[in-house]
Design a protein that fits this description.
There is one protein chain. By secondary structure, the protein is mostly helical. The protein has one domain. The protein contains three helices and no strands. The termini are far apart. The mean pLDDT is 76.
Amino acid sequence: MGNKTKMLDSTRNIPLIEMARILVREEALFAGTSTGANIVAAIWVAARLGTGHSCFWQLF
């Protein structure tokens, strides 16, 4: 859980373009800013749901 909390804290102030760059660099997922926004939102939702819940994100 520590890594997820650290990731959430690290995404709070990341611009959407930077999140897209992180996805390329760390996940080899070539995506734009709208995908970056979706990832940030999914991380925030997952954190709010808390332990014992799941958050699903799908890329089309």
